[in-house]
Target: Glycosyltransferase
Amino acid sequence: MSNCARGDMSGSPHIALFAQAGMGHLMPHLRLATILLGRHCRVTLITLSPTLTTAEAAAISSFLSTYPEINHLELHLLPDDNGPDPAITDPRFSQFARIIRSTHLIRPMLSSASPPLSAVISELYTASQIAPILIDLHIPHYILYTSSIKTLPLIALLPKLLSDPSRFNPSCSDVNFPGLPPLPVKSIPSPLFSPGHVFTQTLATASLTFQRAKAILMNTFEEFEKSTLTALNHDRIIEDLPPLLPIGPLTPYRKSRELTPKGDYKTWLESQPVDSVVYVCFGSKAPMGVAQMQELGKGLVGSGFRFLWAFKTKISLDDEYNDEDEETKSEDVRELLGDSVWHENGRRGMVMSSWVDQDEVLASSSIGGFVSHCGWNSVTEAMWAGVPVLAWPHSGDQRLNAQVVEESGLGVWMKEWGMGSENGLVNGEEIGEMIGEFMRDENLRETARKIGEEARKAVDAGGSSHETITKFLKSL
Ligand code: UDP
Ligand code: UDP
Model:
């Protein structure tokens, strides 16, 4: 806890963070909450009840027990009268429908806050529900954008793009934005080309709320994505966009010991030589088919490097996160990944089919590289740790984030690699060779280390992100 948070708080701003479902969306809110707490603010965290997964519920309760000074409110979501829409397979969208049904509960929650709120920070997806209420209550609204700056013009201009299918369709090679380099069509999330898709509709509606927000808080630092930031903030290539405030990387928070995931990987990792281990993790959900996982396993063994592989096999991270019968689980993992990987388990490598503490893993001096799907949290965590990334993106914003990884020098991007489905299998031999090359690249490691140093400078007192937060708080 900061001294300021313990002391007299009478003049402090009171900021509410409205967290979004999905671990990758919740994390940046929790991080920002602790940063604001350390900067003299009263903080209220609003979460959704029920959470999408028990893993999120566990993360929230662990967080609140570590930071009891944070005030917690729950938005109790009303059930969807018609039941879940069978056409909607992603549970987040069903939950989104419940948020829309429960919008009337948000207003009393915000208006009765004591002391009155100085600002509300929400993610883009929920912004369309919250923005009108905040305008009415005269509370400034800030959006916390949880992806790279590179993805922002695409989302901000989505309604315009959708209205011109001759220039925005999957058979174009590039999509052009005035004042920015063209975006390769392959990097654009494919649902965005279907105007009727629930994801596209949600985003297109939400993007209209950008212009009503005071500013957009970005989980990055000024120097990391300088050219896109300059185009948007200085050259104003999208006229009605509010200023982007890079306040990141949002740094990991202190976790209570008894609630962090258990795992023998920690002892193993600590005993490995410096920079010797490649860490492999594709986020909180399962992006990879079984056959591709087996090829990856062969590749890791064949690379000759030590490895820590935290894999997921379920679309819901609950099944990965919760404790299971360890023996049954071991057998499943062995069968899934094959004997060669299993043989190395606990020796030259470690496979984890449960949740690992990624912040802690990346902070370990043994980790020399990170094979990542490039979810934006993972990218910011790699930049914070100064660990180079071998980008193997899958869907959503990940390809654009991978482009940022490559352009910034934080890593290399395997543009032609798919996840074993639409683009075919990447074979183990190729993966092994690439991982070997990546892990031997000392220049890349040095560049990543420097990015880590810059990231630390940015968030330390006097650094660009630190100063941006100071200005933001002064403006409240
Ligand atoms: N994460 C973790 N342990 C795991 C898998 C993921 O701590 O075993 C964390 C990771 O550090 C990151 C978040 O979960 O903060 C995943 O977010 P990201 O944007 O990288 O990917 P997503 O899961 O949203 O695709
Ligand atoms: N999304 C969401 N909840 C909503 C509406 C939209 O999570 O209520 C978005 C989500 O942020 C993501 C997209 O749906 O951009 C699905 O893509 P992906 O599977 O890549 O999710 P992510 O890894 O970013 O959470």
Observations:
- The first strand starts at residue 14 and ends at 18.
- The pocket of uridine-5'-diphosphate (ligand 1) is lined by residues 23-24, 27, 281, 283-285, 310, 355-358, 375-378, 381 (CB under 6 Å).
- Residues 1-6, 320-324 have pLDDT under 50 and may be disordered.
